[in-house]
Amino acid sequence: ATPTSIMVGTGRAAQLGILFRQGQALQELKDVKVIAVDKTGTLTEGKPQLTDFTVTDGQQEDAVLAVVAAVEQQSEHPIALAIVQAAEQRELQIPAISEFQSITGMGVQATVDGKLVQIGADRFMDSLGCSVAEFSAQAQQLGEQGKSPMYAAIDGQLAVMMAVSDPIKSSSKAAIDHLHQQGLQVAMITGDNQHTANAIAKQLGIDHVVAQVLPEAKVEAVKALQEQYGKVAYVGDGINDAPALAAAEVGIAIGTGTDIAIDAADVVLMSGHLTGVINALALSKATLRNIS
Ligand code: ADP
Ligand code: MG
């Protein structure tokens, strides 16, 4: 491609709200075989609501929600906001915390009133030696409804199983159908629960699902797709997507996402919708046609 045609192409893209941070990406996009996407905040709104809150025997609902919200006030994960809002709606007194820690892909923890409060996915609880077996049937059922189950432990004892529901963006289904029409494979790579991921993937007609992965494992999933199908574009919005954005031939960040994702990406979609990927692909093809 000539520098001029690339300039014209990236200029047109900018008018459509697609920022090519790398001219190279405009050339490479047309050769991509797989579009791999993150779930939370990319396919879904990234604005979950707390829908379920089941405490274990001997625990009191409001008291548990108050300490869980206290810890989540320090977190930037969309799940955290859902929990804090639920506590505010109930007008609960939220206690002070200390020693907050975020464990990427697992959850968060802090000390509240001298007690260690740990919140996150089932694998986080497993790693603490805290069994969530009593909730396995309920968690599976919630997952099949597309909700994301998670847990909190207080001083190493399971205190609650919760679930959040995050609506699918209205634009996601049509965008995926369109990608299929272009002969592309569509994969979802998420840190969320397997049942939840499968339920969302089914609604959207996604071909490949990789769930319950840590950020480094998102890179492994991208590599596996590269080996099997060829060049991969990865679309994501979170801190946890940065390694995968860098590993894919074309990294595409959702403009409403975190700065870390945007910094790791070759392309930024200002609209916040997957529809931008289709426009970017069309521009890539048109630009390269004009010069060959
Ligand atoms: P994703 O954004 O794809 O869900 P993450 O790596 O951010 O992936 O998180 C993976 C999982 O870890 C979440 O689905 C959730 O179960 C748990 N988790 C992460 N952060 C939090 C948090 N602040 N509160 C509760 N659970 C969390
Ligand atoms: Mg995300």
TrEMBL record:
Keywords, sorted A to Z: ATP-binding, Cell membrane, Membrane, Metal-binding, Nucleotide-binding, Translocase, Transmembrane, Transmembrane helix
UniProt GO BP: copper ion export; copper ion homeostasis
Subcellular location: Cell membrane
GO molecular function, one term: copper ion binding
GO cellular component terms listed in the entry, alphabetical order: plasma membrane
Protein name listed in UniProt: Heavy metal translocating P-type ATPase
Family: Belongs to the cation transport ATPase (P-type) (TC 3.A.3) family. Type IB subfamily.
Species in which this protein is naturally found: Denitrificimonas caeni
Residues of the full protein shown: 468 to 759 of 821
Primary location recorded for the protein, binned into one broad class: membrane
Species lineage: Bacteria, Pseudomonadati, Pseudomonadota, Gammaproteobacteria, Pseudomonadales
